[in-house]
Design goal:
The complex is a heterodimer of chains A (776) and B (147).
Chain A lengths: L20 H5 L15 E7 L5 E7 L1 H4 L4 E6 H4 L26 E2 L5 E7 L2 H9 L2 E6 L6 H4 L15 E9 L2 H7 L2 E9 L11 E7 L4 E6 L4 H12 L6 E4 L15 H13 L3 E4 L2 H7 L6 E9 L5 E13 L9 H8 L8 E10 L13 H19 L3 H8 L8 E2 L5 E2 L5 H11 L1 H13 L3 E10 L16 E7 L5 E5 L8 H13 L6 E5 L16 H28 L4 E4 L2 E4 L5 E3 H10 L11 E7 L8 E10 L6 E11 L6 H21 L29 E5 L17 H18 L13 H8 L5
Parallel strand pairs in A: 1-12, 10-11, 14-15, 20-21, 27-28
Antiparallel strand pairs in A: 1-5, 2-4, 2-6, 3-5, 7-15, 8-13, 9-10, 9-12, 13-14, 16-17, 18-26, 19-20, 19-25, 22-23, 23-24, 26-27
Helix pairs in contact in A: 10-11, 11-19, 13-14, 15-16, 16-17, 18-19
Chain B lengths: L1 E8 L3 H8 L2 H7 L3 E8 L2 E10 L2 E15 L3 E10 L2 E14 L2 E13 L1 H32 L1
Antiparallel strand pairs in B: 1-7, 2-3, 3-4, 4-5, 5-6, 6-7
Helix pairs in contact in B: 1-3, 2-3
The chains are: A alpha+beta (776), B alpha+beta (147).
């Protein structure tokens, strides 16, 4: 028995490089498209070029005649497959039946109409061109405000007003607050449609085992277990004969938090042909057919007193839903409503959502999902109010923040903010940028005719989704910890990390709790046959919900380890720490490896204990977590071209306790890049007839490395009381905090010209027109 | 997309009018036109190859001539679809005698859909202009030969 104890240093809180990286940067990771199987077939999907049309006929003979083509299926073949599910429920919600292949009508450009299956990907693609579809083209509508205007074409003929739902939420005494207000500012603020653009597009491999009648679906997804449950339902399969494997995922950002027609379609095809089948989405399909994000037109009214105290907020929100509800489509704008008061104390809130059908691809969760829209709205409105009252935007924020002693704080929208100290990140950011000095510099540069702006965004977010009653599919998470006979540790998590780095952060947590080396812990995930049921990774929940589940599983396991240790040391006074059980009386100890070996050999067992070392824990979070922060952007505008230069970008994020600062910085950087993309460059554009004009990366501008400023990333740490780790989540913080900071900065730069608001993206053309005295 | 422009032809309005409705001349002059067959009164079936941005494709469609007012004006209606999408166009051509020749002024609306809209939209305007210019240039050669 070992008698020396070497306690490893604590790993949580350290900047540790990702365990995932070697396979990712050496090209040895396996993505869906890397999967090869004997006899594998390939599918190509025929899609509608029209936004609205009746299908009069589909001619498949010429495609079937091409050598190598195995089968062609149309909506007539697949109409009994269950509909593409909508997981959100709202009172009175209209849910169109969403067939996996169009049956008699198409509703958006890209709507799948037929699938060709061939022995080779290229044959499938060529055969798809031989399929002729007769369409009777119908009028379409692509703009949500036009869709609810009188006389607009009906997206779904059964609902001629194009409204899928109305949703009303109210808190406090709104009418009284507005009647007594000394100032009310109003603005129409849009959050344009965005395309999530993960580097890896979607992809599916379906493998049907004819013998034991089981289906395995390999898909680039964020939610393997939910996908299994819903696919089994759609295909009429028992769930225990359905397996979902999520291999490496090259980015999701919410776009793979879904159940797509193609996933069920490939299952259907594999079951029909009795061979494995692969479908890999092209970039053009990805832009046309994978969900888009945002798509808001918001009418805000903010009421305040002359001293800058905000007293009430009204919002009329028009959400462009697209033609169908994908998994969470109608729920996304309700998150905007929850988040609309931001970090401010007032409780008089009224929101009315109109969820509107358009002949476009559905919108759904994209990084931030409803919260960037809300934050953009309130943070723009605060600046508009500050300008109206000639107050400093930092001062008006500090005046209205909820104070640390007010937590837990009940909001006018029914949330309970867990913890916060909102002055902290804002004051830290102001100190880092030398706020007073910047304002002086701005005054001087204005005298020289230059256009310099300083923009602040103080954001809050709802993370760690979430308590089960508040989520459509359960909000808990699960973890299994297994110590093998060698004493090495395997962690299985139901959260399905896909770039967030939990193979590292969860290993840090487990290594600390068990006192082992980081390399002695392997984190597995993403295969429903390997890990217990879990909900998945989205809504900044991976570490904030999956982490505590792991923590509690580790506590449970440590109890068992200690019992085995006590038995082996033949002592009652035993404690487990640093990878060993030690008797406090004799100083003798046994290592985890020795305990594990003994537990599997099972010559002797502690009373009431079973052999083996394994523990599973399902953890239900009692509340959401509410991270916050302050971002400050300094911009300068080129008068000649209207181009925005981001001179400085400071992000101070408070995501609770930090497990790995390197990964938190990475999340902030990526998030800021996507927030900056929305603020300055990106926009999904449909023409009036529903044709997507920004259908490729040549026409849809995501920021390149050279378009990014240097991000100065700083943190404050206000632990969450909601979970034992004190973590809050940081996956969406950068995106939520960024766009209002940039737009506030540019509006500030242009304020001498009388500019009060500009809608995103802030393209040079838009700004140049404003500089010429025109409209945006 | 709105298109408009004008072109000078070195022949009389009557000759220009006849030329603009001569399927053989049109087939010869339309860039990428592979065939143009009469299928009815003032109606033709057309096969046309079109290149735009990084892709090219074969369009099959119909050309229809309407509102004929020889030799002053007529309306041209083109509809085609192929694997890269579809196009629909309608234009009014006005012919007037000018400087011993004919000015052909055109004004119309072109609508495209499918991949061609998603990918090629930014190049559509310039591509359409180039194609129309090539068409009239070539037709002009024929007109000069006739004149």
């Amino acid at each position: 028995m070992a008698t020396t104890i070497t306690k490893p240093e604590t790993l949580v809180g350290k900047r540790i490089r990702r365990k995932e990286d070697p396979r990712l940067i050496t090209g040895t990771a396996t993505y869906v498209d890397d999967i090869q199987m004997p006899g594998m077939h390939h599918a190509c999907i025929v899609r509608s070029p029209h936004a609205a049309a009746r299908i009069k006929g589909i001619h498949v003979k010429a495609a079937l005649e091409l050598p190598g083509v195995t089968a062609v299926f149309t909506g007539a073949d697949t109409k009994d497959v269950g509909p593409v599910p909508c997981g959100a429920s709202l009172p009175g919600l209209r849910v169109p039946h969403h067939h996996i292949l169009a049956v008699d009508r198409v509703y958006f450009v890209g709507h799948p109409v037929a699938v060709v299956v061939a022995t080779d990907r290229y044959i499938a693609r060529d055969a798809a061109d031989r399929i002729e579809v007769d369409y009777e083209v119908l009028p379409a509508v692509a703009d949500p405000e036009k869709a609810i205007a009188a006389g607009a074409p009906a997206v779904h003929p059964e609902w001629p007003d194009n409204v899928a739902f109305h949703f009303h939420q109210e808190g406090g005494e709104v009418d009284k607050a507005f009647a007594e207000a000394e100032v009310v500012v109003k603005e129409r603020i849009t959050s344009q449609r965005l395309i999530p653009t993960s580097i890896e597009t979607r992809g599916v491999v379906a493998d049907w085992n004819t013998g034991d009648k089981s289906l395995t679906i390999y898909s680039s997804s964020q939610i393997p277990h939910l996908l299994r449950t819903l696919l089994a339902m759609m295909l009429g399969l028992p769930e225990h004969h359905t397996r979902v494997v999520v291999p490496e995922v090259g980015g999701g950002f919410g776009s793979k938090l879904n159940v797509y027609a193609e996933e069920a379609l490939m299952g259907f095809v594999a079951m029909k042909i009795g061979k494995p089948v692969k479908w890999i989405e092209s970039r053009r399909e990805n832009y046309l057919c994978t969900i888009h994000g945002r798509g808001h037109v918001d009418y805000f009214e903010l009421a305040a007193r002359k001293d800058g105290t905000m007293v009430g907020l009204k919002l009329k929100l028009i959400q462009d839903l697209g033609a169908y509800h994908q998994l969470l489509t109608p729920a996304i704008p309700t998150l905007s409503v929850l988040m609309m008061p931001g970090l401010y104390r007032f409780k008089n809130i009224r929101a009315d959502i109109a969820g509107v059908f358009t002949n476009c691809v559905p919108t759904d969760a994209y990084r931030g999902a409803g919260r960037p829209e809300a934050t953009h709205g309130i943070e723009r409105m605060v600046d508009i109010l500050a300008a109206e009252l000639k107050m400093d935007p930092a001062e008006i924020r500090l005046k209205n923040f909820i104070q640390p002693e007010e937590f837990p704080f009940s909001t006018g929208t029914g949330l309970i903010y867990d913890s916060g100290n909102y002055d902290l990140p804002l004051k830290k950011a102001m100190e880092i940028v030398d706020y007073k000095g910047l304002r002086k510099q701005q005054n001087d540069s204005r005298k020289q005719g230059r256009l310099m702006g300083v923009g602040i965004s103080s954001y809050g977010e709802i993370c760690a989704f979430g308590p089960s009653p508040a989520t459509p599919a359960g909000g808990w998470e699960c973890a299994t910890v297994r110590v093998d006979p060698q004493g090495k540790v395997t962690v299985g998590t139901g959260a399905s990390p896909h770039g967030q780095g939990e193979e590292t952060t969860f290993a840090q947590i487990a290594a600390d709790e068990l006192g082992v080396d980081l390399d002695d812990v392997l984190v597995v995930h993403g295969d429903t046959a390997v890990v217990p049921y879990g909900i998945g990774t989205f809504g900044s929940r991976g570490t904030a919900v999956g982490g505590p589940a792991l923590y509690y599983a580790l506590q449970k396991l440590k109890e068992k380890i200690t019992k085995f240790g006590a038995m082996l040391l033949d002592s009652e006074s035993v404690s487990y720490s640093g990878g060993c059980c030690t008797c406090s009386k004799t100083g003798k100890s046994v290592t985890l490896g020795e305990i594990a070996g003994a537990s599997y050999r099972a010559m002797k067992l502690p009373e009431g204990e079973a052999p083996g070392l394994e523990a599973t824990y399902f953890w239900e979070p009692p509340n959401f977590t509410f991270p916050f922060g302050a971002h400050v952007a300094v911009t300068e505008i080129d008068r000649e071209t209207g181009k925005v230069k981001v001179a400085r970008y400071v992000a101070v994020d408070d995501c609770g306790r930090i497990v790995n600062p390197l990964l938190v910085d990475g999340q902030v950087h990526g998030g800021v890049a996507q927030g900056l993309g929305q603020a300055l460059y990106e926009q999904a554009v449909y023409d009036d007839s529903g044709q997507l004009l920004s259908g490729e990366l040549t026409d849809y501008a995501i920021p390149k490395a050279t378009m990014m400023p240097w991000i100065e990333s700083h943190h404050t740490e206000t632990p969450s009381p909601v979970n034992p780790l004190g973590v809050k989540g940081v996956g969406e913080a950068g995106t939520i905090g960024c766009s209002p900071a940039l737009v506030n900065s540019v509006v500030d730069a242009l304020s001498p010209l009388g500019v009060r608001h500009i809608d995103m993206p802030l393209t040079p053309e838009k700004i140049w027109n404003l500089l010429q005295g025109g409209q945006q | 997309m709105k298109i408009s422009g004008s072109y000078q032809m070195a022949c009389s309005p009557e000759q220009a009018y006849a030329l603009l409705q001569d399927p053989e001349a049109l087939a010869r002059c339309m860039p990428g036109c592979e065939s143009l067959d009469r299928i009815g009164e003032n109606e033709y079936a057309m096969k046309m190859k079109m290149a735009l941005a990084a892709f090219s494709g074969l369009f099959e469609g119909k050309v229809r001539i309407a509102d004929t007012k020889p030799p002053q004006s007529f309306r041209l209606i083109v509809e085609g679809s192929g694997r890269v999408g579809f196009m629909k166009g309608e234009g009014l051509l006005n012919l007037s005698a000018q400087n011993g020749g004919t000015e052909v002024a055109y004004e119309g609306d072109v609508h495209v859909g499918g991949t061609i809209a998603a990918v090629g939209q930014r190049l559509l305007d310039s591509t359409a202009k180039v194609m129309i210019k090539r068409f009239f240039d070539k037709l002009g050669e024929g007109a000069s030969a006739r004149a």
